[in-house]
Amino acid sequence: MNTETQPLHFYKYQGAGNDFILVDNRSLFFNSDDYEAVSKLCDRRFGIGADGLMLLQSHPEFDFEMVYYNADGMPGSMCGNGGRCIVAFAKQLRLIDRETNFLAVDGPHYAKISPEGNWVELQMINVNQINRDGEAWVLDTGSPHYVLQTQGLDTLDVYSEGKAIRNNETYGAKGINVNFVEDFGDHLFVRTFERGVEDETYACGTGVTAVALAHAAATGKHGHISTPVKVLGGNLRIDFDHHHGQFTGIFLCGPAELVFTGTR
Ligand SMILES: N[C@@H](CCC[C@H](N)C(=O)O)C(=O)O
């Protein structure tokens, strides 16, 4: 299909304010190499508007495959909130009921979904490596993340500070997602500058996952940990086990909701 000129039926989802265009591409009608079309669809002024676009495709060994693009139109690394939204989409399409195993760019994922279809708990990849860069923590939770503790996060210029780190000499070539975190004792507050969106988003799932793991490493917390996180677009929770720098059983939990459907 010519993605520019043919009618396209889409579904708009959001997970804690991280918003996505979802396309049922089981028939492969959408040309997955058409990066320009993806960036136009994600444009907030000339398109539908979103932080990213996902194609739901068939796979012989899984319930479905998630093909994810950032708003710039390029294929992205793993998107945690996108993963939660595509699970809600698969339930809406009646492809799955309360559980699923699907394939994403970083490998297989298991997820559970509420009977109402609006709360998704997505298992993330295990993390065995976490590095320091000065005061910051750097780790890969399916996407690369930089985590820096701050004070007064509500007034921080996340766009300028995040953009500078994302493009610096160390990270500029491949890019990195930059997360700022403030510890409020009973919860963490996180704001993220996202690579591929090249702006602050209202939430980043792999980002809050990275923050929760880095927080456990920084505070020396071990065993089963449940970390509530507030983001600009809502609340998320990350459950995991931490033993001597090995993070397993990681679940990113939060809302995933259909906003509207349309034909463009
Ligand atoms: N919003 C995402 C992160 C998406 C991936 C990222 N922007 C990248 O490709 O670096 C999430 O919820 O994890």
UniProtKB/TrEMBL annotation:
GO terms for biological process: lysine biosynthetic process via diaminopimelate. Keywords: Amino-acid biosynthesis, Cytoplasm, Isomerase, Lysine biosynthesis. It holds the Pfam family DAP_epimerase. Pathway: Amino-acid biosynthesis; L-lysine biosynthesis via DAP pathway; DL-2,6-diaminopimelate from LL-2,6-diaminopimelate: step 1/1. InterPro entries: DAP_epimerase_DapF. It catalyses: (2S,6S)-2,6-diaminopimelate = meso-2,6-diaminopimelate. It is an enzyme of class 5 (isomerase). It is found in: Cytoplasm. GO terms for cellular component: cytosol. The keyword Cytoplasm applies. The active site is at residues 79, 204. The record marks 145, 194 as: Could be important to modulate the pK values of the two catalytic cysteine residues. Substrate binds at residues 18, 70, 80-81, 177, 194-195, 205-206. Its EC number is 5.1.1.7. Homodimer. Catalyzes the stereoinversion of LL-2,6-diaminopimelate (L,L-DAP) to meso-diaminopimelate (meso-DAP), a precursor of L-lysine and an essential component of the bacterial peptidoglycan. NCBIfam families: DapF. HAMAP family: DAP_epimerase. Belongs to the diaminopimelate epimerase family. This is Diaminopimelate epimerase. The gene is dapF.
